[in-house]
Design goal:
about 110 residues, about 0% strand, 434 Repressor (Amino-terminal Domain), 6 helices, mainly alpha, 2 domains
Length: about 110
């Protein structure tokens, strides 16, 4: 599941809203909501924003500066990528970090 899907699912569940109900509010299908939440599709920012608005939440994006020691070659290569590819890689990196943090948290209780 990608990060955007996790956010939508977390907010939806916290409010006790079904996928079908959210889909009806957002003018889409239950299967589309399911696919987004499971990470089967990469929704546009507009779609994520619409789903969250239907749940009474607003989408917030933040940018972080690169560390000063970031290799310039990787920065230049990133700028040469198509925006969709850059976003796909950012989401993949975010998911990897989230999995690592989750694994670290689950390991804390075992020590």
């Amino acid at each position: 599941m990608d990060h955007a899907g996790k956010v939508v699912r977390k907010v939806r569940r916290s409010q006790g809203v079904s996928q079908s109900s959210l889909a009806l509010r957002a003018g889409t299908s239950q299967s589309a909501v399911s696919d987004i939440e499971r990470g089967r599709v990469s929704p546009t920012l507009h779609t994520v924003e619409r789903l969250l608005l239907c749940l009474g939440h607003r989408l917030r994006l933040e940018a972080e500066p690169l560390p000063m020691d970031a290799p310039l070659e990787s920065v230049a290569a990133s700028l040469d990528m198509a925006p969709r590819e850059r976003l796909r890689r950012m989401v993949a990196t975010s998911n990897t970090i989230a999995r690592g943090r989750a694994a670290a948290r689950s390991g804390e209780g075992r020590a």
